[in-house]
Amino acid sequence: MKAVRFVESGHPAEIVDIKAPTPGPGEVVIKVAGAGVCHSDLHVLDHDMGLPGPFTLGHENAGWISALGDGVTGWKEGDAVAVYGPWGCGRCHTCQTSMENYCENHASLGTMGGGLGSDGGMAEYMRIPSPRLLVSLQGLDPIAAAPLSDAALTPYHAIKAALPMLTPEATVLVVGIGGLGHMAVQILRAMTSAQLIAADIDDDKLAHAKKLGAAHTVNTGDPKKALEAIRDLTGPRGITVALDFVGAQPTIDLCVQVVGRNSRLYVVGLAGGVVNYEANNPPYGCQVMVPYWGSRTELMEVIALAAADHIRADVETFPLEQAVEVYQRLRDGKIHGRAVLLP
Ligand code: NAD
Ligand code: ZN
Ligand code: ZN
């Protein structure tokens, strides 16, 4: 089968022929319907994230079960599933609560999951080490559902924890309206009535946010003007919850300057920015969070939200063979919503 492989950082992804996997005892193989193209792959490909290659990329996957290993019960061939991405040990206290994204044994596992150390979904078939990592798609189309397992799950995990703060007179800021950000806007619209400001450097992305329900949009190309525009909208209270889906120095600096007292700043993007602290800056009472992905049960909740038609990934589909070109389009900021590769 054809697979999109990570070889080493600084080296472009390669499309090669590899042997299709077969399930060992307790494992499952799925036929991949769609593999989402996440910006994290660019960090892995372009910078050293400490992941030893080679492995098949694609950590945002959905498809149909094609083979069950010995001892796997409760599933059957043809079942449509999303693959939960951050694979933990499955045994520690945190994994047992379904938060494998914060597995206590992550450092000794040697992999962060399929597509991030182990073979992922940018191939015709993918091996899943345990059926606990599968979630039923509840009738959703597996191609459109692929981005739910990361582009939606990651913002959902952050937003869910902030729900008590997202009251009707609060203001929430979403920075970066790409794969994750366009899902965050929809999740916020579905679950809260807080005033929503969307920020990006690209006016097309801002128009997209507006279409999805953002009350206000701010182009952050000129950080000084953006700061003034956001402060005009919030008044002295400031932003109550800021979600930074870029994580670069300019976006973190902007968020630190616009959050109010008793607020929360989520740094989700991995662009390498630093949160500096001096007294009252970020302001007193501000909680800085560094969320990572989401839990298995939260993926079930995200799928329920999509099955009830409250959220929907805007996907651009491409054949698997175009992976290298699609990564370049993502690097150039030319993907609307989420790109999904079709093996
Ligand atoms: P994306 O490329 O689809 O979207 C990024 C968006 O940010 C684009 O709309 C782009 O125009 C905008 N942008 C870029 N620079 C900007 C700036 N200076 N100011 C404002 N907007 C700017 O990326 P994505 O797949 O949504 O991923 C976003 C980030 O989140 C990446 O860094 C990715 O690695 C990270 N990520 C983190 C987690 C986690 O669990 N912490 C999970 C998934 C992805
Ligand atoms: Zn990702
Ligand atoms: Zn664990």
Rounded average pLDDT: 98
Q: What is the annotated CATH architecture of the largest domain? A: Alpha-Beta Complex
The SSE order reads EEEHEEEHHEEEEHHEHEHEHEHEEHEHE
Strand elements, count = 18
Number of domains: 2
| Distinct small-molecule ligands in the complex | nicotinamide-adenine-dinucleotide, zinc ion
Please outline the major beta sheet: 7 strands, mixed
N/C terminus separation: 9 Å
- Number of helical segments? 11
Low-confidence stretches: none
Helical percent range?
25-40%
Q: Strand content of the residues, in percent?
A: 25-35%
Shape annotation: globular
User: What is the H level of CATH, i.e. the homologous superfamily of the largest domain?
Assistant: Medium-chain alcohol dehydrogenases, catalytic domain
Assign the CATH class of the largest domain. Answer: Alpha Beta
Using only C-alpha atoms, the radius of gyration works out to 20 Å
Structural class by SSE content:
alpha/beta
